Backbone:
């Protein structure tokens, strides 16, 4: 999957105004897919929500698959981009704990609906669109690397010793987050998400205590 | 959601043969929903896969929603039922480690496709069918309790001391499993699932070591 955000579906370059219209369509599609799922979202729903004409939406996106790919790229930029910025600042267990608390608060504010916009999209496309699945897989890989940099900062600052496997820690942290968000979405409660993220912090604390010994 | 597996859609009791036909339809639907998603599965697909007539399928299920609810109940019985049996035997960290290895092997054998049949169904229905979502939430609750009994056995055998919160441990274990399965499905690799389940075992080991001190 490779979506050129600066071209129409036939490869023509976009004007500034064209880019703005395209962004409005992708944002509307992302919101609808979060609210009612990928399958529950039609091109007509997106067209109406974005306030564009039929010819406009098809000018940018040949079909719904193209729109799904653009939404995945949008969520990659938005969500993974935000976590990249956050983890660039995480270099202590306290900072990790604040990140976990922020995630829980954010879910609570949203009534635990929607789950992770990327993970949820991934589950919905995984068995039906190999390119979309690969796009979400790449975004998850980027997310893992962002988290790993946080753990590497902690190791560099002596929070952990060299036995700490920062790559495995990053993967298990992202899995704990994804599983916690999935359970929050289904159970409409942050209880399991809190337990899952607490275990991440507790695990880091135990590793840190072990490093001090 | 309450599905009576011994009645037709109009509430008439089923004969032994009727129950067999109903089971065949639900199994076919469960397989198709795992392969192509809930939205990608039509009543006609299920009818053809189960080898029944149109009037037969509608005799048991008024519509696709009814079929989705029956599939959730089927996965609850099958998957959560299996994990209840497994966790009744898990009373040591070695046994927990064997369960994790079994999960990873099972995913690898299936090429990491499908994810968790329950978690994946939950994500697909969460925003569009409140009864189906509640059904998956109940199944996840039952799954949590099964895992908790394993941790309680470990605590009773002195693996952990009384500081171990078996309820939180069970929730974080199920979240680690769900997140690991989601990442396996999307990345078509067991690497993150292994890291996620290793963290569960490692966390239990660190708690056990702390209990010995």
Residues:
């Amino acid at each position: 999957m490779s979506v050129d955000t600066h071209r129409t579906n036939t490869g023509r370059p976009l004007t500034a105004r064209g880019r703005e219209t395209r962004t409005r369509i992708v944002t509307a599609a992302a919101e609808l897919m979060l609210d009612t799922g990928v399958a529950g979202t039609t091109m007509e729903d997106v067209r109406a929500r974005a306030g564009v004409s039929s010819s406009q939406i098809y000018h940018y996106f040949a079909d719904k698959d193209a729109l799904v790919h653009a939404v995945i790229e949008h969520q990659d930029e938005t969500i993974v981009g935000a976590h990249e910025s956050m983890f660039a600042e995480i270099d202590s267990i306290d900072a990790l704990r604040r990140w976990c608390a922020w995630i829980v608060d954010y879910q609570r504010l949203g009534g635990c609906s929607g789950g992770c916009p990327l993970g949820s999209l991934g589950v919905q496309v995984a068995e039906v669109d190999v390119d979309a699945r690969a796009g979400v897989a790449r975004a998850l890989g980027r997310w893992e690397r962002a988290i790993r940099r946080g753990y590497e900062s902690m190791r560099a600052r002596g929070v952990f010793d060299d036995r700490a496997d920062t790559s495995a820690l990053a993967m298990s942290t992202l899995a704990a987050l994804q599983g916690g968000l999935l359970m929050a979405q289904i159970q409409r409660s942050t209880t399991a998400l809190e337990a899952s993220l607490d275990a991440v912090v507790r695990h880091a604390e135990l590793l840190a205590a072990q490093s001090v010994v």
Chain A has nine helices and no strands. The mean pLDDT of chain A is 93.
